[in-house]
Specification:
The protein is an alpha/beta fold. 50% of the residues lie in helices and 17% in strands. The chain is elongated, with a radius of gyration of 29 Å.
Length: 543
C-alpha cells in the first residue's frame, strides 16, 4: 500500500464554518447574486453584461434572472459561494418549471433570509420561525388563488402577452398563433435569416423524422415529395432486404396510388428498390420515412399515426412478422408530403376517431405530473391538424440562440396562463396579500409567530419596491397607493399609471410558484448551521 495514499493536500481538505459566521457568509453570497438579478425586474428592465469565456467575444446582455444566476459559477470567496449557489439552484429550478418569476423569487428569498437571520441571532427560535413562515405561505397562496382570472377572450390574451413581451412584432405573432390554434398550439422555432421574427402556418399533422434518403425527393424545386391516395405502413422494424417490403408494396399498389413506409431504419438496398419504382412510368410512387431517434418519441409517433391514418402499428415488441402483414394493416391518407425533416399527413377521413383520441390525451395532460406534461402537450399539438413555425432572427448565432430561449419560455408562460389563469401583475397581487397576513399577525400567540408574519408582510412588497426603485421612484408613496387596492403599474415608458382594472397581468402559476419556492427555500436556508467547504486551490504556474 502506498504510504502517501491517504494524505490530502491543503486545497483538498474541507474547511468548516460554524455559527455565528455561517449566517454571515450565507447572506454575503446571497446578496451578491440577488443584487446582480434585481435590476432585471420591471416592465423595462436594466440589462446585465456577462463576460464570455473568450474575452474577444462581445459580452452577453441578459435580462433574465435565472440565466444571469446560472452564469455565476463560483464566487472568489468559497464561503460566500455556498450562499450564492443556494440562490442559483433555486432560480434555475424555477426557470425550468415555469420559465419566469426568477427575479421576484430572488428578491423575496433575500428579504426573508436576511430578516430571519436577524431575528434568530437576536435570540428567536429558528425552528418555530420556520414553521410559522410555512403557515404564512399557505395564507398567501390562498389569497393569490382567490384572485386569479381566466383568459376568457382575445382582449385579455392580448393584454397578458403585451405584459411579458417587449417586442411588438413578437407580441403580435404570439397573440395571432394562440388566438388561431389555441392553448395546445404546436409552435416550432427555427433560425431566421434577418434580425426580426417571422411566422408561417403548416396545415396538416406534422411528425419529425422525414425521408429516409434525399434521393426520394421527387419535387426538386420544392424539396419535398407530395403523394395522394396513399397507403401507409406503420412499423418500428429495421428494413434491410428488398424482400421485406415487396409484399407490402404489391398489396398497396393494387388499390392505391402511393405508399409511405414508416420504419426505424431502411437499408441502402431497400432505398434503391424504392427509387427504382419511382423512376417507372407509373402513377404509383413509394417513399420511406424514418422514425425519430428517441425511443419514447418513436412509440408516440407509431400510436399517433395509427389514430390518424388507421391500420395497425407493426411492432417488434409484439413479435409481429413482416410476412404476416396484410392490406387491412395499412393506414390511408388522401394526401401527404414529406421532406428531409418531416412527414405531414394533410388529409384523412378519420377526423372523428382522432377527436376522440385527442380528448383522451387532453384528460391525461390535465392529470399528468409537471414532468410528464411536455410529452402529452407534444402529442396533442401534433394531432391538432395545424401548426405554426416561428423564424427567430438576430445579429448572430449566439443572439438567435438567446432569442429562441427567451421565446420558448414566453410560450411556456402563455400556456401556463391558459391553464392556471392570470393575476394582477407588477407585484400588486403580492402587496394585496398583506391584509390577510396582518389579520393573522393580530391573532398571533407567540413572538416567533409574530416575527414570521412581520417578515412575510415586508417580503411580499419587496418585488414592487424593487420595480419602483429600478425606475427611479421613491417606493413609500406608491406602495401606499397600491395597498389601497388601486390598480397601479409602471408602463413600458416608466410612467406610474392608475386604472379601474389591472394594467399588467402575470401568469398566476408563475407568481404562485415564485413565492412558494422563495419561502420554502428561505425556510430551509435558515436551518443551516455549519458550512463544509473546500478551500480554493493554491495558485500554480504549471498545469
Amino acid at each position: 500500500m502506498n504510504r502517501h495514499s491517504s494524505v490530502s493536500t491543503l486545497s483538498q481538505r474541507p474547511g468548516l464554518t460554524f455559527q455565528p459566521n455561517t449566517y454571515q457568509w450565507i447572506v454575503s453570497g446571497i446578496n451578491d447574486v440577488v443584487n446582480a438579478v434585481k435590476p432585471t425586474l420591471g416592465p423595462s428592465p436594466h440589462l446585465v453584461a456577462v463576460e464570455q469565456p473568450n474575452r474577444n467575444n462581445q459580452p452577453e446582455l441578459l435580462d433574465n434572472g435565472a440565466l444571469i444566476a446560472r452564469r455565476i459559477t463560483q464566487l472568489s470567496d468559497v464561503k460566500m459561494d455556498m450562499g450564492a449557489m443556494l440562490v442559483r439552484h433555486m432560480l434555475w429550478k424555477l426557470y425550468e418549471q415555469v420559465g419566469d418569476g426568477s427575479a421576484t423569487a430572488a428578491i423575496i428569498y433575500q428579504r426573508i433570509v436576511t430578516q430571519g437571520i436577524r431575528y434568530i441571532t437576536s435570540g428567536g427560535n429558528g425552528q418555530q420561525l420556520r414553521s410559522h413562515l410555512i403557515e404564512g405561505l399557505e395564507i398567501i397562496l390562498a389569497q393569490l388563488r382567490s384572485k386569479t382570472l381566466p383568459i376568457s377572450d382575445h382582449a385579455r390574451l392580448s393584454q397578458f402577452v403585451e405584459s411579458i413581451s417587449h417586442d411588438q412584432k413578437l407580441t403580435d405573432i404570439l397573440i395571432e398563433i394562440f388566438s388561431t390554434l389555441g392553448v395546445y398550439a404546436r409552435i416550432d422555432l427555427r433560425s431566421g435569416y434577418n434580425q426580426t421574427y417571422e411566422r408561417t402556418y403548416v396545415e396538416g399533422i406534422l411528425w419529425e423524422g422525414g425521408l429516409a434518403s434525399p434521393t426520394m425527393i421527387l419535387d426538386r424545386i420544392g424539396q419535398k415529395t407530395e403523394l395522394e391516395h396513399v397507403a401507409i405502413f406503420v412499423s418500428d422494424f429495421e428494413l434491410n432486404e428488398p424482400s421485406d417490403v415487396l409484399p407490402i408494396i404489391d398489396g398497396a399498389a393494387y388499390k392505391h396510388r402511393g405508399l409511405v413506409v414508416v420504419a426505424k431504419s431502411v437499408s441502402e438496398k431497400v432505398i434503391g428498390l424504392l427509387n427504382y419504382i419511382n423512376t417507372q412510368d407509373k402513377p404509383f410512387k413509394v417513399i420511406a420515412v424514418k422514425l425519430p431517434d428517441d425511443d419514447i418519441e418513436q412509440q408516440e409517433m407509431l400510436d399517433n399515426l395509427v389514430h390518424t391514418v388507421g391500420g395497425r402499428a407493426i411492432k417488434t415488441i409484439l413479435a409481429d412478422q413482416l410476412s404476416s402483414v396484410c392490406e387491412a394493416d395499412l393506414g390511408y391518407a388522401e394526401k401527404i408530403w414529406a421532406n428531409q425533416d418531416y412527414l405531414c399527413v394533410v388529409d384523412t377521413n378519420r377526423a372523428e376517431q382522432r377527436s376522440d383520441y385527442l380528448l383522451q390525451l387532453e384528460k391525461q395532460y390535465k392529470r399528468a405530473k409537471p414532468s410528464e406534461k411536455k410529452r402529452f402537450l407534444r402529442q396533442i399539438g401534433q394531432l391538432m391538424g395545424a401548426s405554426a413555425t416561428v423564424f427567430v432572427g438576430g445579429f448572430n448565432k449566439e443572439h438567435i440562440h438567446r432569442n429562441k430561449e427567451q421565446l420558448e419560455n414566453m410560450i411556456k408562460v402563455v400556456r401556463s396562463a391558459y391553464e392556471n389563469g392570470l393575476i394582477s401583475g407588477g407585484g400588486s397581487a403580492l402587496v394585496h396579500c398583506q391584509d390577510a397576513l396582518r389579520a393573522s399577525l393580530a391573532l398571533a400567540a407567540s413572538p416567533d409567530e409574530r416575527a414570521a408574519f412581520r417578515i412575510l408582510i415586508e417580503a411580499v412588497e419587496s418585488p414592487t419596491q424593487a420595480i419602483l426603485e429600478n425606475r427611479g421612484y421613491q417606493p413609500g408613496l406608491y406602495l401606499e397607493k397600491i395597498r389601497n387596492k388601486k390598480h397601479y403599474a409602471l408602463d413600458a415608458d416608466g410612467q406610474f399609471q392608475c386604472a379601474d382594472a389591472p394594467l399588467i397581468l402575470d401568469a398566476a402559476d408563475v407568481v404562485i410558484r415564485a413565492i412558494d419556492t422563495a419561502i420554502r427555500t428561505a425556510a430551509l436556508t435558515l436551518s443551516v448551521d455549519v458550512l463544509v467547504h473546500h478551500r480554493n486551490p493554491e495558485f500554480s504556474a504549471t498545469p
